[in-house]
Amino acid sequence: MRKAYQDARQLAVAIDRSSRGRIVVSGRDRGTYLQGLFTNDIAALEAGHGCYSAYLTPQGRMISDMWVYELGDVILLDLPSVDRKDVVLAKLDQFIFSEDVQLGDVTDTFAQIGVVGPHAARVVGALLEKPSESVSSLDEHGNLRGTIAGGDAIVTRIADAGEPGFDLYVERTRLDVVRQQLASHDVGEADSDTVDVLRVEAGIPAFHRDMDEDTIPLEAGIESQAIDMNKGCYVGQEVIVRVLHRGHGRVARKLVGLSIDGDDVPPAGAVVMSGDRQIGNVTSAVRSIALAKPIALAYLQRDFLAPGTIVSVNGARSVVTAVPFVATESSPPVRNR
């Protein structure tokens, strides 16, 4: 684990992300159709660009978060899991009436492998047989098409792995060949524990870990990345606007970082206390390699969100900490807690 972690921070590692869900949306109305459903400004996306977004219920609760990539002829939706793909695909399908929109489930067609770390652009450029500058110059969420291992590939710039990097979408039958090519560039594959450490050190929430169907995006602190405050109507907008304007953005609970004393990593669901008062629960926790101590993401009641607030988890003294715990060049802005 430690070698994979150091490679991710100093060189490059691969991350198998094939367990995610993938949908393609085609047709001339694809952008305007998704614009009325998702929280970010999908209609403004030009070919080669993308964004982070969410899909909400009318009550403002999350159906899923996702990455949205405009490829020029189709939009690719990258979802956190197959079950979220199934739910989103079914909902998208039921709202198509007269629009020129077609949906395709390409989860089984494509494998998805991330390459992250300071040398990721050089490695991906070599696999694509393109100058690394053409890869490193991609904007955040940017995308391009090319050829890897003798077949078509899509490359997207990603920001959810805790280190800057790229996702490679290749035909599933060619995944082993791509892995061999990565190994020829001394790029090994990170295990799931290392992947989780990188994510939590960056303070990045994961669906069905730190967000679920009861979560409002404002509670998870993803609104600055996932919601366009100036776009027109979308499903769940009334709830978001009401909280932001009438409630001044205050919600009953919010996701925060916790730095934990001692050596014990608390389990998901561990109770967070302030004195004798239960004030929240841990959602993700790891032992940080960079900080040499346990850290966690946890939902706390709104009176306990200020960095520096002292709480306890399983009896261990803990401190509310602004995220990211460990900054990289791709770290998102510190969210207001």
**For the record, what is the CATH homologous superfamily label of the largest domain?**
Probable tRNA modification gtpase trme, domain 1
Number of DSSP helical runs: 10
CATH domain class name of the largest domain: Alpha Beta
**Could you spell the SSE succession in H and E letters?**
HEEHEEEHEEHHEEEHHHHHEEEEEE
Strand order of the largest sheet: 11-14-13-12-15-16
Describe this structure in words.
- This protein has 337 residues and is of the alpha+beta class.
- It has helices spanning 2-10, 30-35, 82-94, 120-128, 132-136, 175-184, 192-201, 217-220, 223-226, 237-246; strands at 13-16, 21-26, 49-56, 62-70, 74-79, 102-105, 110-116, 143-148, 151-158, 165-171, 253-260, 271-274, 277-288, 293-301, 310-313, 316-321.
- The strands form three sheets. The protein has a six-stranded antiparallel beta barrel with strand order 11-14-13-12-15-16.
- A hairpin with a 2-residue loop joins strand 12 (271-274) and strand 13.
- The protein is globular.
- The chain starts with a helix and ends in a 16-residue tail after the last strand.
- The model is unreliable at 330-337 (pLDDT under 50).
